[in-house]
Every structure is written in C-alpha cells, then in structure tokens.
Design a protein that fits this description.
The complex is a heterodimer.
Chain A lengths: L10 H9 L11 H5 L10 H10 L2 H8 L3 H4 L5 H5 L6 H14 L8 H17 L4 H12 L8 H7 L13 H11 L18
Helix pairs in contact in A: 3-4, 8-9, 8-11
Chain B lengths: L4 E3 L10 H14 L3 E3 L8 H7 L1 H17 L4 E3 L3 H16 L1 H11 L8 E3 L1 H10 L13 E5 L23 H6 L2 E3 L18 H17 L4 E4 L2 H9 L1 H6 L9 E3 H8 L4 H4 L9 H4 L8
Parallel strand pairs in B: 1-2, 1-3, 3-4, 5-6, 5-7, 7-8
Helix pairs in contact in B: 1-11, 2-3, 3-4, 4-5
Classes of the chains: A mainly alpha, B alpha/beta.
Chain lengths: 200, 292
Amino acid sequence: MAHTETHEKTLADKILERTGVDVRECYQCGKCTAGCPMVQFMDLTPSQVMRLVQIGDREAVQTLLSSQTLWSCVGCLTCTQRCPKDLDPAAVMDALREIAYQEGLVPDAQRNVLKFHQAFLKTVEHTGRMSEVPLTALYKTLSRDFFSDVLLAPAMLLRGKLPLVPRVIGGRKEVRRIFKRCLDPERPDRADEETQEDRP
Amino acid sequence: MTTPIGYYPGCSLHGTGRELDQSIRALAEVAGVDLREIKDWNCCGATAAHSLNHDLAVALPYRTLALAEDQGLAEVLAPCAACFSRLKGTAVRLARDPKLAQKMTEITERPYRGTVRILSIIEFINRLLDAGLEAKLTHPLGGLKVAPYYGCLLARGEDIVDDDPEQPSGMERALVAAGCEVVPWNFAVECCGGGLSMSKTEAVLDLSDAILSDAEDAQADAIVTGCPMCHSNLDMRQRTINAAGRGPHDLPVVYLSEILGLAAGIEPERLGLDRHFVDAMRVAERMTERSA
C-alpha cells in the first residue's frame, strides 16, 4: 500500500470495490453480447463495455460513462448466467450506471429511463410503496412525455388495475430515513430535491 | 394447523398484477394454507433502485426481511418475480457478507439474523402440490396447450433460482397436474423488456412481439407466466404491439396460479381472469369436471 497516495483508482478498481467483479479477468469471448436481448438498442455491446473498463484511460472512461448502453440494459442477467469467467457483466452495468448517474453523465437520449427510475424511487421514498398513478404522473412531469400510454388508463381503470388512492405505509418516515442515508445529499443530482425532503 | 407462510404481495399485486394476488390467495385457501401478509412491508426497490443506488437496492428489501423475521415468519412467498429476485438476492448477499449486513443494520436501525427463506411462486405451488393440492385439482383443463414462460427472474440468478437457467422445468409438474399439455418452444427464458416498459416502450414491443410469435408458432393456446411485469408487457401491451403493425396476436397470457385455480374448480372471476386485456375467459372454458 506504499503507493496509495500517488495511485489513482482505475475504473476497474472502483468496479471491483462496488461489485466484487474483477473486469480484468474478461477474455473477450463475446458470449455476453451474443445473448443480450437489448444489444440492438445499444451503442456499445456488453463485451465492448468490459473491454473499455479494462483499457480504463480517460477516453475509454468518458466513452463508457456517457454511453447509451448503460441505460438500455434491462438487467435480464443472461450475460451473467452465461459468462464462462463468472464475471457478472449485469452487476458491472449497474455499477457503471450508478457512477454515470452520480457524475451527471446521462446522455440526453436516455433521460427518460433515468426520469422513470427517479420517479419510481421518489414515489417509494414518500409513501414506502410504488403506486401507478403518482408514479405515472411524476414520470410524465419529469420526462415531459405526456401522451404515451394515456390510452391504457381507462382500460386499466375498467379492470380495477389502476387504484386511484396511493398506497402509503405506516413506516414511511423510516423509509424516508433509509433513503436519506443511502443517497448522498451532497450529490449534485439531488440538489433540486432537497426542498421536498421534509414534506409530510 | 399448519405453519403460516408469510406473504409479500409487492406493489404490482395491488394494481396492475391484481389477478396474481387474487389467484394466489384463492389457491392458498383451497389448499388450506394460512398466508400472512407481512405487516407494513415496503417496496423492494425493483429495477429503479439497483439501477441508481447500490445501498438502497439492498436496504429496501432488508427492511422487509427484518419485519418478516420480527413477525415470526420463517418463510415468505413473493409471487412477483422481480420482488422475489430482489428479496432472495438480498438474503443471499447478507448471508455471504457480514460487513454488508452490519451496514444495513446501521442504515435501517433494524436487526436481522437471516432466518427468513423467500419462496417464488413456482416453489410455493410445488409446495402446495406436495401438501395435497394435487388431489383437489378436480377440474383439469382438457389438454390446454400452454407455453411456460419463465422470462428472466424465474430462471436466472445464481443462488436465487433453483432450476436449470437455460431450460427450466419448475412449472411443468403443476401444469401437467392441472391437465395442460406443455408445448416445447424457444422463448421460455427470453426477456420481455421488463422494467423498461414505460421508458423504452419500443424495445419492449419488439421483444414481447417475438415471444408471442414463438408461442403461436408452437401452437400454444396460452402463455403461462409468474411475473406481473412480463404479464403486463405481453397482455396489456398486446394490442399496442398489434397496432404497431406487428402480429396480429390474440394470445391469452395467464398466471400459473390462475391455471391451478381453475383446475381446482375456482370460479374464473374469483381468480381475476376477467381482468385481462386479451380475453382469458376462453381458457376457463377448457375446465372439465373430472368424474369421481
């Protein structure tokens, strides 16, 4: 550990720390890419993601963290299941996505995926559970995507699948505290949300 | 009096996945199993939490596990495939990583000794069959051809799913016992697009269209699933898939618990079969009373 002070953590180090996966062991067989159902919607294939983490220079990191791929991964675990080196590329995607989010590097084309995740978590943070109506309302407000799926609403109502009263749990304050402890309030992507923190 | 089994419906089962909740509860009643909903459970965090925050993705399921333990529940059924994967995945990681467990105890201010076992819908139904449900399946479905669809989270996840990840077979015993014919098909473990349903709808329509097409090619009368996200993508969005110029499809998508419920002679409305977007009541028409 003598060189700790001068040694800057590589992206591979950070991922190893967060996930226990040592991406340097990937030998680029391409099996993750071959089985990925979302690869047609990605700019980098899963095996290219693994390779760029290995390269890890400034340009590679920049390409990775701003890629569309991180937001197209649906977490189906096919890559993880099939990796002959047991490297869990899905966990690597999660870690990279989290880093990209923390560093504010989400590409414009993927804002909606981020907005959906944020709306989902916001709903849970305030009530303890996800409810369709507040989630959809918040997502539409954040994404400004007001028109998609609106035709589904009446049909859902008719089938009793769109409860209008949000589900709220007794321990919602406790859940809010858990959120506070997990999400670093110093983070820039949370700054605009601080005012809502103590809403009843 | 049998030991009660804990119940974690998860958020979807109170809304879009209502039929799953209805059919699970009705089936448990017929089987004489005491399902006890965990008091004050919270959302598992789903895809959103593990996409954006590592700690949250563990802390949210942790609180529910701690509640279940505190309420004396040794086993908990999580019928939603995503909730199951998050809850059991968390339990497995906590057991492997005492430092993580310690951190979670601090974040949530709740102790958890790791005593809770999480059951998937498939494990639960197989358990009911072992406990005598098979003899109560008095209304077999007359050779209804079904394509068992495991999707992602009832097939994959090391140490989470106890089945063959590429060729799972956990649903087959129940389906055969319910009088169905299981058709061989290629998309049993393919992904439907899951949690990107609202934010990347185009991709979801593509993937779900391929799944429906393959089930149709295999001559299936219905797809059987255990996941409310797969269900909404394949059932609720089926019309949208058709409207986008694909298909056209007209294939019922039913929950494993609905199939078993029908075979147990439970009225289709009680199971929620009338709540589907693609008519699923036609599946109920296949019920045939077994002569004594």
